[in-house]
Amino acid sequence: MVTAIYLDDYKLNVIDYDEEIKNGLLLVKVNFNVTTEEYHDVTTLLYKGIFHLKVPDQHIDCKVNIQEYSTSITNLYEKEQIGLFRLTLCEIEE
User: Fold this and answer.
1) Separation of alpha carbons 92 and 44, rounded Å
2) What DSSP character marks residue 25?
3) Percentage of the chain surpassing pLDDT 90?
4) Residue that wins the pLDDT comparison between 78 and 47
5) 49 within 8 A of 66, measured Cβ to Cβ
6) Are strands 10-22 and 60-71 parallel, antiparallel or unpaired?
7) Residue 88 exposed, middle or buried by CB count within 10 Å (0-12, 13-18, 19+)
8) pLDDT > 70: what percent of the chain?
């Protein structure tokens, strides 16, 4: 069971993880919670769009981009909020 992934060495503790091969490329779908304290760092990271993905539990180490991204809350600047983020990443051919 995968409990964490790394995007450019930033650790995300995931609550749901799924992977599949689509058109010969790896597709990874994750859900993870983001707290008020993490919000700025996580959203700044996600704006990059392209990442080095590591999934140690699955021996995955590749370059990916964001296919889909959504969140359950749009303002995590209010104290003690937690948002559910959904992220779909697709492997980039190098």
Assistant:
1) 21
2) E
3) 83
4) 47
5) yes
6) unpaired
7) middle
8) 99
14-51 burial: b if 16+ Cβ within 10 Å, else e: beebebeeeeeebbbbbebebebebbeebeeebeeeeb
77, 36 contact by CB (below 8 A): yes
With 0-12 CB in 10 A as exposed, 13-18 as middle and 19+ as buried, what is 60?
A: middle
Question: For 28-73, how does the pLDDT look when each residue is reduced to its tens digit (9 = 90+)?
Answer: 999 999 999 998 899 999 999 999 999 999 999 999 999 999 998 8
The closest of 1, 17, 3, 6 to 63, measured between CA atoms, is 6
CA 21 to chain CA centroid, nearest Å: 17
- Residue 19 confidence (pLDDT) above 90: yes
Pairwise CA distance, residues 32 & 86, whole Å: 7
